[in-house]
Amino acid sequence: MISHREIPMMWQNMLQKKIFLVLVVICTVSLLLHHGGHFNWTMETFPLGCPTLHSHRAPGLKPKHTNIVFLKTHKTASTTTQNLLFRFAESNNLTVALPVQTCSHQFCYPLTFTSQFVHPHTLPANMITNHMRFNKTALKHLMPNDTIYITILREPSSMFESLFTYYSNHCQSFKRVPNGSLEAFLEEPSRYYRPEEKESMYARNTLTFDLGGDKDRPATDALYAQAFTAEVEQVFSLVMISEYFDESLVLLRHLLSWDLDDILYVKLNMRTASSKKSLTQGLPAKIRAWNSIDAYLYDHFNATLWRKLSALGLACVAREVKLLRQSQEKLMRSCFGGQIPLLRSAAEIKNKDLRPWQPSDKVDIVGYDLPVNISHEAQELCLKYIMPEISYTRMLLRSQSLRHRRNYQTRTPQKSRTTIPRHSQVHRSQPSSTDAQGPASGTGSKATGAG
Question: For residue 378, what are the β-bridge partners?
Fold first, then answer.
């Protein structure tokens, strides 16, 4: 029981606390009135109840996750995502698993992925991002146990139009169509489509095929679409949606405990407006019916994305997206001499390494060229943001092979037998000195399949 003598002391302590709180309020109001602009910016950037967004790493924060599989799907903004991951790997001295040279810049796509397609100088790997046909068993064996799996999907109607135009000279199913008419193909797809042909995966359920599924399962088999979607959901921690790319990047940042700088990007592998076909009334429904499994996947994971965004807090997501876009605008202006960059055709780009691959004379894929009047430091930084997939893959393979040879030459016999630990924190990865055999057969498609 509290004595009578203790009660006045309790009231005195409470009074002191109240006085302290009043002083805090007065000081806060005074600060707001005197430094209103800065205070408002701070509150907008770090709103109460929202996770703090950092441009750079702060002490005591959860380590960045670095072991990642990104399944690069076709025509989904996946090239932009891949570039982001390449840059993160380079800046944190990580190892990216890359294709053997006989596979070109893809893992011998459309063959199902196997570890034989991986260049031995790029192992053991922290990250893998180049095009492949997904093989969960092979990847689980290749990558560390704590690897996070990510992919990206796009609404099937717009995606199929992009595929039809992009691969019109490569996919026999599209080449058979008179006058390259998308309407004619969709009127009677089975007349032109041959499921056994090498590049038939571009003509039906491309997302399903990339994810390792059966692209030719009948549209009436609803149970297969449901079961396959459940399997994908079990493996992939995040399925991004290209129509909500920035919102997807916010989720990616939180999933991997990354910073704002880590998710900055420049849009890559874009077509000119003249290279796009408008979808007339009725075509989207026909596309979704022909690509029914892709449509089911997209609808499911689009809803899943928004459930995850809602759980994070839509107001917080909106603020992070705003900050991301503001930072991107600053990046673009610093890279392009204070101006918004002009998209250029491949022929107009002076630096050959920056010229995007052109799938045909019917499609114009545009890119960027850096101005000559920016600093050397800006050139070094900005070059990677705008480098096309093929050039970046070749450059990474050269640098990682050089590192492998250097490490192999300086390694003692005792060290060469030491098992290299894999973990999720940022660390210096050392490639294995053990060579692997190249692919038994098959070469990659000539098309980039970029997003």
Answer: none
Query: What is the rounded CA–CA span in Å between residue 288 and residue 244?
Result: 19
DSSP 340: P
CB of 199 closer than 8 Å to CB of 164 = no
Which are the contacts of 55, defined by CB distance < 8 A and separation ≥ 6? 259, 260, 261, 327
Q: 133 - beta bridge partners?
A: 112
Q: How wide is the angle at C-alpha 325 spanned by C-alphas 43 and 376, nearest 5°?
A: 115
Strand partners, 270: 366
Cβ-proximal residues to 362 (8 Å cutoff; 6+ apart), any chain? 165, 168, 169, 180, 275
What is the DSSP secondary structure assignment for residue 445, as one 8-state letter? -
Diameter of the chain by CA atoms? 99
Torsion sign, CA atoms 191, 217, 149, 302: positive
User: Among all chains, which residue has been given the structure tokens 């480098």?
Assistant: 387
Q: Quote the CA–CA distance of 165 and 163 in Å, as a whole number.
A: 5
Q: Give me the phi and psi of 364, to 5 degrees please.
A: -115, 105
The model carries a pTM of 0.79
State the burial class of residue 301 (Cβ atoms within 10 Å of its Cβ: 0-12, 13-18, 19+): buried
Output 414 or 185, whichever has higher pLDDT. Answer: 185
406-437 pLDDT, tens per residue?
A: 888 877 555 444 444 444 344 433 333 333 33
- State the Cα–Cα distance between residues 364 and 223, nearest whole angstrom: 40
Six-digit token pair at 396? 């990474």
**Mean pLDDT in residue range 131-135:** 98
Dig out the tokens for 103 from the structure: 């596979």
Tokens of 86: 């390449």
